[in-house]
Write a structure and sequence with these properties.
Shape: elongated
Structural class: alpha/beta
Radius of gyration: 24 Å
Low-confidence stretches: none
Strand content: 15-25%
Helix content: 25-40%
Mean pLDDT: 93
Strand order of the largest sheet: 7-8-6-5-4-3-9-10
Distance between the termini: 25 Å
Number of helices: 9
Order of helices and strands: EEHHHEHEHEHEEEHHEEHEE
Length: 295
């Protein structure tokens, strides 16, 4: 099967490969010309299907419609970062935030390990207010306070870059807008493997997927001890954030080794017509000249 990615509608239409070939020819030749090359009833059937499902439309001026650009461009040297932090963390978080800002990092996932308190959280997020970071997702392992609702609503309102907050080991399951209290522990939530059947259909993800591995590409992770990884879920460690120049690290072929291993190069994904919408959130394993997702 082939697939038509309707990115502006977050939809994928799966069609036979012959129809993909037909669509490619319809971009170049007139319908009447195509009917001479294929069975007319088949051409009419698929043209009706494409128009009905708003995949294409009729025009007498095809040159006025250009292909969408498919290059993934971003000025960020690091696009996403995972930060693990606790009251016992000794690495320089302020210095790390400044480094990520200089690298034009846009999205942060923060995990607070152990108990957290309002003063620590407030001080932590104040460091991000003047940075270019656009969104922050927050996971708090434990927060026990009779003022938890007041504290979290204040923290959220004072830090508009925060997208949502999850607090674990709570007394009950309850939500206040984008603030969620969960009775389960943080490991049950964060260690659950990403569902590879959950498709991400948008222009940025699609263009990145064409060339890069969307799980590894332009991402950095720092655990609670300040150790740098490609992702917090992965076993391999690099340098520590206090002793490493991150800009030098992202030019290290070992750190960026899997950045360019896109879905076309992964054995379990390369033959899927949906591969450019799959987030391959798994450790990559290299065996000979082949790459596999670790299950």
């Amino acid at each position: 099967m082939g697939a038509i990615y309707l990115l502006n509608r977050a939809r994928i239409e799966r069609v036979p490969l012959d129809v993909c070939d037909l669509i490619s020819e319809l971009e170049v030749y007139s319908i009447n010309f195509i009917k001479k090359r294929y069975r007319e009833d088949i051409v009419n059937q698929w043209i009706s299907y494409l128009i009905k499902n708003e995949i294409g439309h009729l025009t007498q001026e095809p040159n006025r419609f250009k292909d969408s650009p498919n290059e993934y461009n971003t000025p960020s040297l690091i696009q996403r970062a995972q930060i693990e932090f606790s009251l016992n963390s000794s690495y320089n978080i302020s210095s790390l935030v400044k480094k990520l800002d200089l690298l034009l990092c846009k999205h942060i996932e923060v995990r607070f390990v152990g108990k957290a308190n309002y003063d620590m959280l407030n001080s932590f997020f104040n460091m991000f207010k003047t940075t270019c970071i656009r969104s922050i997702s927050v996971y708090i392992e434990s927060y026990h306070s009779s003022n938890i609702k007041k504290d979290m609503l204040l923290l959220y309102s004072n830090n508009p870059k925060i997208s949502y907050i999850y607090i674990f080991n709570a007394i009950l399951n309850i939500s206040w807008g984008n603030i969620h209290l969960i009775k389960k522990n943080i490991e049950v939530f964060l260690d659950k493997p990403w569902n590879l059947d959950h498709l991400l259909i948008n222009f940025l993800f699609f263009t990145e997927s064409l060339k890069y591995n969307t799980f590894y590409h332009k991402k950095i992770a720092i655990n609670k001890d300040g150790v740098i990884k490609n992702d917090l879920s992965l076993p391999h460690n690099f340098d520590t954030v206090d002793t490493c120049d991150i800009e030098e690290l992202i030019n290290d072929p070992q750190f960026t080794f899997f950045w360019n291993i896109n879905a076309d190069s992964i054995e379990s994904l390369k033959d899927s017509e949906l591969r450019y919408a799959i987030y391959p959130a798994r450790e990559l394993i290299k065996q000979g000249d082949h790459f596999f997702l670790k299950e």
